[in-house]
Specification:
The structure is a homodimer of 211-residue chains. With 211 residues, the first copy, chain A, is of the alpha/beta class. In chain A, 40% of the residues lie in helices and 15% in strands.
Chain lengths: 211, 211
Amino acid sequence: MKPIPEPTRKRLIRLAQLLSQQKFKPLDETQNELPKTITSLRIQKLTGWSNATIRKDISYMNVKCGASNGYKIEELHRAITTKLGLQIDGDKKRCCIVGLGKIGQALLEYAGFENSNFELVAGFDSNVNRTEILTAPFPLYTTSYMKSVIKEQNIEYAILSAPEKEATALAIKLSEAGIKGIVNYTNALISVPPGIPVKNVSIISALQNLL
Amino acid sequence: MKPIPEPTRKRLIRLAQLLSQQKFKPLDETQNELPKTITSLRIQKLTGWSNATIRKDISYMNVKCGASNGYKIEELHRAITTKLGLQIDGDKKRCCIVGLGKIGQALLEYAGFENSNFELVAGFDSNVNRTEILTAPFPLYTTSYMKSVIKEQNIEYAILSAPEKEATALAIKLSEAGIKGIVNYTNALISVPPGIPVKNVSIISALQNLL
């Protein structure tokens, strides 16, 4: 099988999200039945990606498209989630939150995890007051326990929402603990050893990229 | 002047962040003085971008680099922020938060805005209970006032942190109100009229892109 290029992968992840939304939503309000298929033109309208790009991306998934009927939503959704390892009914990837300030606290009970292939299993903060005061559906620890908990609990991914000045030190600690990837919610540009992917979702960077 | 390609722009924004961090931090702990210059090799080490990419990106900024001394941090930082419109001492871009659930609420007092070229000036939620209970350093309104407040207050950018099922309807409302860009904090893939840029910072997408 051809390897899937990074931009294609990124679009397919978005497309899987879109398809799971389309399954629950009629095309327009006069329709009562849910659509079973989706054309590349409809995807183009919803995403802004070109028709050619969409067809090329989907070609990596080995699904058939009826010339006039479009793709079967269920089938395409299943193909993408299976190929990219996004199934929500399989084993969930174990994640932790590092930094329990206001944003980290809000993420402790974030409902978005429910329909995903990820689950939160631990939270960390350098301040013992935070870990004692806050409640979560999973245990909270001070960062001194981070390395041992990550190893013992097989935690693979971390969401970093610590203060900016602590961010790089914590990211290095995470990499030493064997984490496979970091979502960086802080504004800090963190440096980690090569081989550990970091995705930056800083709100300020996102705004700056809109200018 | 040559137009700046999107990936270069994105890296330069991260570089400006890095430079503002470098200004406050000695290169190693034995040094007491703050570094005044930075070499492209040091930037390479901190970011993982290739030396050639870094030099090419910076070439858009028309700043000089002493062969052995590297770039002057202050000068390079100022050049980038000026060219890309990121100055924090100029007029700040006015932003609003749409959706005041747990995440939206946490963003109301997010300290990251202080050192940025953006400011929050309004918040919106469809539920009047939320807008009445919550406190913020700026007014909170129900979404029925969204269009008029955005126009009257010259709000240019919106951060969308509403529930997934309300996301597209609110994004369309925002575009009708004349918003210039949207940061999408939800997991929903939102459809807006062409010409309105959307940056997705969904935590679940970020995690999926790490797999």
